[in-house]
Amino acid sequence: METTQQQQEVFTMPRIGDKAPEFTATTTQGEINFPSDYKGEWSILFSHPADFTPVCTSEFMTFAHLEEKFKKANCNLIGLSIDGLYSHIAWLRTIKDKIEFNGMKNIEVKFPLIEDISMNVAKKYGMIQPGESKTQAVRAVFFVDPEETVRAIIYYPLSLGRNFDELYRALIAMQTSDKFNVATPADWNPGDDVIVSPAGSCGVAEERMTATDNLDCKDWFFCTKKLDKDLVFKEILKK
């Protein structure tokens, strides 16, 4: 029975729309209480397998390089590894002093990196995938909104580095949906047309098909409209 419960803990993870599981943790930037410390702002909580590994090093350098860009979009970055605090500190110091990647060097990681030797946080968020490793967290990404709700989840295997353009695009797209009450189609980027919610009645559907305003309806259920890139960023990015 105990083994079964432990396995269930390993595989349990919050779903989209759930409140983000709460935890208190020691980090390279002091103690944090997640998600309450970040209420009112977006957060990206992400895990990586281990310190002093090349793929993780490239990711942390990239995240640190882009931190101000995410901050301007009202989003905090919080990393997690199952390694200990002193390992974290030594690794981040090595990154700053010795590592050059993709034109980046002297990179200082200022966002918190969680110590999770007990794997308590990793288990709460389903970051341990036994098919990959019983002792390393896969590359999980959780987007948590200002109301402390999980809005998106992306999982990568241990060997695959993340696409940071996509992480930023997803963040901006979700905020755009919230702000303008629209959906974003495949491959959407700010400035592209957005999707208007499907008509809820036959009358509305007919009106849409005959409308002469800024709606472009291919059929009653598929209507798009233009949304200016500058307007999107004006409403979303911090001044």
UniProtKB/TrEMBL annotation:
Keyword annotations = Antioxidant, Cytoplasm, Disulfide bond, Oxidoreductase, Peroxidase, Redox-active center
Q: Which annotated residues bind substrate?
A: 139
The family database entries (Gene3D superfamilies) matched by this protein are listed as: Antioxidant, Horf6, Chain A, domain2, Glutaredoxin
Q: Where is the active site?
A: 56 (cysteine sulfenic acid (-soh) intermediate), 56 (cysteine sulfenic acid (-soh) intermediate)
Which Gene Ontology MF annotations are present? thioredoxin peroxidase activity
Annotated compartments: Cytoplasm
A Gene Ontology biological process term = response to oxidative stress
Show the SUPFAM superfamilies listed in the entry.
Thioredoxin-like
Q: Classify the main location.
A: cytoplasm
Additional facts recorded: The active site is a conserved redox-active cysteine residue, the peroxidatic cysteine (C(P)), which makes the nucleophilic attack on the peroxide substrate. The peroxide oxidizes the C(P)-SH to cysteine sulfenic acid (C(P)-SOH), which then reacts with another cysteine residue, the resolving cysteine (C(R)), to form a disulfide bridge. The disulfide is subsequently reduced by an appropriate electron donor to complete the catalytic cycle.
Name it.
Peroxiredoxin
